[in-house]
Amino acid sequence: MDELLLALKNVSEQLLPILGAVVLFYLCIVFRKLGVLLESLSKTVDNLSPTIKLVDQSLEKVQTPLDTAVKLSHTIDNVHDKTVDSVAKATTYVNENMDEIKSYVNDKVNKVKEHFEKEKNEEE
């Protein structure tokens, strides 16, 4: 058993430097490819810079109409709120003064009836 462990020790002492060199070789390849990828990414970002500037300019041009739309929306909201308030006040007024309105309408209807009856009587 001791001989087996001793033989494995000798083999591992010979294989470890070789395996270390292989790992270092693959690490160098990975870092090289990573460098190429970063370089390519940098060029791509540089190429996108004019496009980003154009998009920023377009957004600045669109901002004014959007601000106008927002102002218009606020104006419509204000008109709606005032309309709701006016209708509510009118409803409250009518409810509170229903008897007076009723008597006023009855008076007018009676006057119209009397007027028509007078005309009818005059014609006969």
Report on this model:
- It is a single chain.
- This protein has 124 residues and is mainly α.
- The protein has helices at 2-96, 98-123.
- The protein has one domain (2-123).
- The chain is rod-shaped, with a radius of gyration of 47 Å.
- The chain starts with a helix and ends with a helix.
Summarize the structure.
With 124 residues, this protein is mainly alpha-helical. It has two helices and no strands.
Layout of helices and strands, plus pairs?
Blueprint: H1 2-96, H2 98-123
Radius of gyration: 47 Å
C-alpha end-to-end distance = 147 Å
Average pLDDT taken over every residue:
89
| Number of helical stretches of at least 4 residues | 2
Query: Largest sheet, if any?
Result: none
Q: What order do the SSEs take from the amino end to the carboxyl end, as H and E?
A: HH
Unreliable parts: none
Helix content: over 70%
- What class, by secondary structure content? mainly alpha
Q: What would you call the shape?
A: rod-shaped
How many domains, in number, for the residues? 1
Number of strand elements = 0
Strand content: under 5%
Which descriptors would you attach to this protein?
2 helices, rod-shaped
